[in-house]
Specification:
Largest sheet of chain B: 2 strands, antiparallel
Largest sheet of chain C: none
Strand order of the largest sheet of chain B: 1-2
Shape of chain C: elongated
Distance between the termini of chain B: 29 Å
Order of helices and strands of chain B: HHEEHHHHHHHHHHHHHHHH
Oligomer: heterotrimer
Shape of chain B: globular
Number of helices of chain C: 3
Structural class of chain B: mainly alpha
Strand content of chain C: under 5%
Number of strands of chain C: 0
Distance between the termini of chain C: 49 Å
Helix content of chain C: over 70%
Chains: A mainly alpha (487), B mainly alpha (475), C mainly alpha (102)
Helix content of chain B: over 70%
Number of domains of chain C: 1
């Protein structure tokens, strides 16, 4: 059971890619989307199964390997899942499902290509979640990255190509930085397995090449900050999100950049650069800049997806400061916010997809009063936004609260206060968007608009239920985490 | 402990029921209206049932133990039950009034849902024993208020709704920073665990910002007059019964019941309240929009409540509580009367009205009763409340503050009489208008009657409020 | 640090600087990709160097081979995007890429 569940994280997308390329191109659209549904649902189930097994056996992590021996030699890829990676794997399944549900109505003739790439991107993200050495992390980062460039340019339109190219260049620079720092670290450690590197770096100040290691750390933070879209390294992110096809922005905004950037940072910080206050402080400052900058910049945007992109920058800042606080509470908060952000940001991108599919535009100046015509979209977007702005009892409030308490207690009082006060900007762009798109009088040219039918609305409803349920049941979750000894 | 169910009924019937209303409203609008009223009345009745036990000294308490000091609970002590009864009473009358008022507008499902949700969150807030729960219900009410102010959906109207939301949420965020600083200091969010703690002045300032923003007191008051674009029952609900009282209640809950404050606040808060009362009374004297006048009057009257609660004497605090009740009834009535006037004449400008007493006799009488109560004319209820507050302030550490408020009270009389005379006497401008629907007229009559009865049988409410304040054991 | 290490590190640094300089100076999409590839080659050199320093050359070789494969894929995708852009815009000038603005 457990072997099957763990192997499915990497094996299933691979298998699906094989299957997808057997079906005939002309008729493969629906079949391929359905295969995608199966894969993402199985992934969610597998994550839940592993999670419960983890708790049943009282273990901290489960190690596994794919086709080779567990006792293979140094440097070969060994995988391991722990609580955090399982939560993340669940998110991947969930967001992929939402993306597929959106794609079913919007992607049209490109369904087969889309699903193929989705499987590649899932493989890449699952890989990031389960690897235990830095080089494999890089490999899976590249897989994820390459698949997302192609996905952004999937429709071959001018904007998509432009966004994809910008993303590609920035991502290549980030890869160069990460790989350069890996090379420098490898010089010092002789291995890139998380544990070995952590041991070897324990007193890096006395190392032979200590100055080079400082360069390595700086390059590392910069590289992952680009991947995560943390301000001031965010330049590519709004363009990529805005230009991607609807279902692809769901995927990008919901999970991809978080996996490639934020998850990688958290994993590396937790397993490799343990107890390096310098890195934590840098990330705290970067996170705060992101929070404030992203939220303020979002207020000035005029495109639905672009607002969401900037708000992603801001919300990723919260995850980063949570992890930068260095305390357990901050880590749990960051983990929960990761999950919550995946939920509500996916909801919002699904909403933007619905608006785009029904009205043909995401320019908020051309929209207005859509609530009367698209109630499901409007209500789910309100819930998601309130969750994002940290309005209780929705999910986002609780994770934000934990993060801010953690930062306040362990890192910096001012940081916590700034992060909390910045929520007002979140509320501000939430209001701007609601006023221009959903609330307010119905524009004359929009009277014929109907609610997005079928799977798009289904995705929005399901994700909203998750957001609300997580928020309302949070005391239970908190108690549960406490009983499991995690908090 | 016995009777915890009653708190749950009081909080969760409106809170959960609110979400059923839009579903029911799709098929049976009439049933939806009745259910909405029923939910709010349930809250009132269950609060009334909890009253004897609350006053008996062993209040009903329900708690859920949580790690990290997140322990949540509901406590039905005298103060909580008093507030719950006051707001749910006025709210049920307002819901009844809405039957007639908004039956011609779209989005009624949302309207009833938001109103009932609003009452539910108020009930939750008053019983909460946890700072986080207070914040939680506080924000739910802000969201409801945002939807309700934007009910008519005009561009300008939605902008004002956004303004109200931003101001109250901004204040609430500052308050949350204050709460977290308290949490970091004490390690808990549970109020019962930190009874009698002293809190830092920084935390006090932050929390005060939140309270002032919600209670629309200077300098964070400007959203309240602007919120007058909402339907009249909503403004009544926001300005009179529930929303602005949330801030006052939290002030009482935190700083009268729980925390020790620096002595400086016993002067500072009354001064803020006094300035607020005077400035807004001045604004009320020059405004010409009937709803804005009453809104400014609300800001001014809230100053009196703050004065009573913060002046540091027992009479003042008891008067403050009594003032909450009387003001809710009377101001609710005033707004509802203004709603009838607006509904009939389709204008809010008092210069374009006149002689309406002829066509709207019942409304005129109700308006007069409520206005007298707000002015503080005996034997209306408002008089006793105002008397106790000023009496309390005069015997406090800084008696000169009461002078400001006496001036404020005089100004209240002037501007309310001005409105009354302009609207109901003089040249007849709208000869062929009719009274509002029977629901509307009867609700304003009830409120007017309650204002009068509250004054005549002043013994009962003043006994309750004095008892509540005494049992806090502060003085 | 011996002389060989110094030479290799300097060479790598020079290549990275050259790549970055090219990246900043050019408006041509193809040159941008070349610039990035140049920097990546410097990093390949660094990887080999680090394997040599810690005596783990075999592991470093596997890293380098894997990395080259990935680099090629990125270059191919980039080239594909550039070709499509050329078909849309009629040139490969980065100043034409101004459709997306905040």
């Amino acid at each position: 059971m457990i072997t099957f569940a763990t192997i499915s994280f990497l094996g299933l997308p691979l298998l699906a890619i094989l299957l997808l390329n057997i079906v005939r191109k002309e008729t493969g659209g629906t079949i391929s989307i359905n295969i995608g549904f199966v894969v993402s649902i199985i992934q969610m189930i597998a994550a839940v199964v592993c999670l419960s097994l983890l708790w049943l056996h009282g273990k901290d992590f489960i190690e596994f390997s794919l086709f080779w021996d567990m006792n293979a030699t140094l440097g070969s890829a060994r995988f391991s899942v722990d609580l955090f990676s399982l939560v993340v794997l669940f998110c991947i399944g969930m967001v992929s499902l939402a993306s597929l549900l959106t794609a079913k109505k919007t992607i049209g003739a490109k369904a087969l290509n889309y699903t193929n790439l989705l499987m590649v991107i899932m493989l890449g993200m699952n890989g990031i979640a389960v690897v235990t050495d830095l080089f494999s992390l890089y490999v899976f980062l590249e897989i994820t990255g390459i698949a997302s460039f192609v996905m952004i340019a999937l429709l071959h339109d001018k904007r998509g190509l432009e966004g994809a190219f910008k993303y590609l260049v920035m991502s290549a620079i980030a890869s160069a930085l990460i790989l350069g720092s890996l090379a420098l670290i490898f010089t010092q450690t002789g291995s890139l397995v998380y544990g070995d590197v952590a041991n070897a770096l324990a007193d890096w100040r006395n190392a032979q090449y200590a100055p080079l290691l400082v360069v390595a750390f700086v390059a590392f933070i910069a590289g992952f900050s680009i991947k995560a879209g943390i301000a001031p390294f965010h330049g590519w992110l709004p363009d990529a999100y805005q230009s991607a096809p609807a279902s692809v922005s769901v995927l990008l905004g919901g999970i991809v950049t978080k996996m490639a950037g934020v998850y990688a940072i958290i994993r590396v910080l937790n397993s490799v650069f343990v107890s390096m206050p310098m890195i934590n402080q840098t990330l705290l400052i970067l996170g705060l800049i992101s929070i404030v900058f992203g939220a303020v910049a979002a207020c000035g945007q005029r495109d639905f997806k672009r607002i969401l992109a900037y708000s992603s920058i801001s919300q990723i800042g919260y995850i980063i400061i949570g992890i930068a606080s260095g305390s357990l509470l901050g880590f749990v908060g960051a983990m929960l916010h990761f999950f919550n952000h995946a939920t509500f940001k996916t909801t919002l991108f699904v909403n933007s997809a619905a608006v785009e599919a029904q009205t043909g535009t995401t320019d908020i100046d051309q929209l207005g009063g859509l609530q009367a015509r698209m109630p499901v979209t409007a209500v789910s977007s309100i819930l998601a936004f309130l969750s994002m702005a940290g309005i209780p009892p929705l999910a986002g409030f609780w994770s934000k609260l934990l993060i801010i308490i953690a930062v306040w207690q362990s890192a910096s009082v001012a940081g916590g206060a700034i992060a909390l006060a910045a929520s007002i900007f979140t509320a501000a762009y939430f209001l701007i968007l609601q006023r221009k798109v959903f609330f307010g009088p119905l524009e004359d040219h929009l009277t014929e608009i109907t609610e997005a039918k079928g799977t798009i609305s289904l995705a929005a409803v399901l994700l909203s239920i998750v957001t609300v349920a997580f928020g309302v049941l949070f005391p239970v979750i908190l108690n549960f985490l406490h009983l499991q000894g995690i908090l | 402990m016995e009777g915890q169910g009653i708190i749950f009924i009081c909080i969760f019937v409106p809170l959960i029921g609110a979400f059923l209303l839009p579903i029911i409203g799709r098929f049976m609008p009439r049933l939806r209206n009745i259910l909405a009223l029923l939910f709010v009345l349930t809250a009132f009745i269950s609060a009334a049932i909890a009253l004897p036990q609350a006053l008996s000294g062993t209040p009903i308490l329900w708690q859920m133990e949580l790690p990290l000091g997140f322990t949540m609970g509901f406590l039905a002590d005298g103060l909580a039950v008093f507030m719950a009864m006051t707001s749910s009473l006025v709210a049920s009358i307002i819901v009844f009034y809405s039957f007639g008022y908004i039956e011609h507008y779209p989005n009624q499902n949302e309207y009833y849902m938001m109103v009932v949700l609003f009452i539910g969150s108020m009930m939750g807030l008053v019983f909460s024993t946890n700072l986080l729960l207070i914040y939680l219900f506080w924000e739910i009410s802000a969201v409801c208020c945002w939807r309700l102010i934007g009910f008519y959906r005009g561009k300008d109207i939605v902008l004002r709704a956004d303004k109200a939301f931003l101001v109250t949420v901004g204040g609430a965020l500052l308050m949350l920073i204050g709460f977290i600083s308290i949490y970091v200091q004490t390690g808990t969010f549970n109020l019962l665990d930190m009874q009698g703690n002293a809190i830092s002045n920084a935390a006090m300032v932050l929390i005060l910002f939140g309270i002032l923003s919600k209670s629309a007191t200077l300098p964070l008051h400007t959203w309240l007059p602007d919120a007058g674009v909402a339907p009249s029952p909503v403004t009544s609900l926001l300005h009179a019964a529930v929303l602005v009282k949330i801030g006052v209640y939290v002030y009482a809950r935190l700083f009268l019941v729980n925390f020790q404050l620096d002595a400086v606040w016993e002067t500072a808060v009354p001064v803020i309240a006094g300035v607020s009362a005077l400035v807004s009374a001045g604004a009320a004297m020059i405004e010409t929009d009937i709803k804005r006048i009453i809104a400014y009057s609300t800001i001014s009257q809230l100053g009196f409540i703050f004065l009573g609660l913060s002046c540091g004497t027992m009479v003042g605090a008891a008067g403050g509580l009594l003032y909450i009740l009387m003001h809710s009834l009377a101001k609710g009535g005033l707004f509802l009367c203004a709603g009838i006037v607006e509904h009939s004449t389709h204008t809010k400008d008092i210069n374009k009205m006149g002689g309406l007493a002829k066509c709207l006799p019942i409304t005129a009488v109700a308006f007069a009763c409520c206005a007298f109560s707000v002015m503080g004319i005996p034997p209306f209820g408002g008089f006793f409340a105002k008397f106790m507050v000023i009496n309390g302030a005069a015997t406090s550490a800084s008696p000169w503050v009461s002078v400001i408020f006496i001036i404020g009270a005089v100004m209240t009389i002037i501007y309310l009489l001005r409105v009354f005379i302009k609207v109901f006497f003089g040249e007849i401008t709208h000869p062929d208008i009719k009274e509002g629907s029977w629901e509307m007229v009867s609700s304003v009559s009830i409120l007017a009657a309650l204002s009068l009865l509250g004054g005549i049988f002043i013994n009962l409410p003043s006994y309750v409020t004095t008892f509540i304040i005494e049992s806090l054991g502060r003085w | 640090m011996n002389i060989v290490s110094a030479i290799i590190l300097t060479a790598a640094l020079l290549m990275i600087i050259a790549g970055m300089f090219c990246l900043v100076r050019t408006y041509n999409l193809i040159r941008i990709i070349i610039a990035i590839e140049l920097a990546m080659k410097a990093i390949t050199l660094l990887l080999v160097f680090s394997g040599w320093v810690n005596g783990n050359l075999a592991l470093a070789q596997t890293f380098v081979i894997t990395m080259i494969v990935l680099e090629v894929i990125v270059a191919v995708v980039a080239a594909g995007i550039i070709v499509s852009l050329y078909r849309k815009n009629g040139n490969v000038d980065i100043r034409e890429l101004t459709n997306l603005k905040g």
